[in-house]
Amino acid sequence: MNIVLIGYRGTGKSTIARELGARLGREVVSMDAEIVRRAGCAIPEIVARHGWEHFRDLESALAAELGRRDGLIVDAGGGVIVRSANVAALKANGVVFWLEADVATIIDRIGGDDQRPSLSGARSFVDEVADILAERTPKYRAAADHIVNTAELSAAEAVAAIDSLLTRACPLPDSHPSAMGSPRT
Length: 185
Description:
alpha/beta, Rossmann fold, 5-stranded parallel sheet, 8 helices, 5 strands, globular
């Protein structure tokens, strides 16, 4: 089973995925980084050359591919939930954690990020974050098996919360290696 992290950019998906991967001894796949690697150019360039629909097509193909793999921690792009087929693919073999944070926290965390093109084209940065987050929140909520609010948690605290939720959802026998302190796979 995969562990899938969804949420708006700035909610901690990448950092938490890396720390969770180290804690659990699992491979981490950042969907955005993998799309960039395969395309050979940054997301703003992909969008400028081919448009958002093309980027979403690349994202959908990758979601389908990752949904067929096992034992991964998937750092999903913030808009992966825009297409229901992506959610279905990732949930087919995964438990989905929505990392949420309020608009002020997100703006504080991503204020200087220039690696993502505007989603709206014309609105101010603050308005865009608020509007897109409001639009996506029902989709994040519907996709999530669990919700972790990262606004006031450190990455280590968020990782511990996710690990605790995983342990409660799938308790392991005392003789299992992870019950003795080794990474769980």
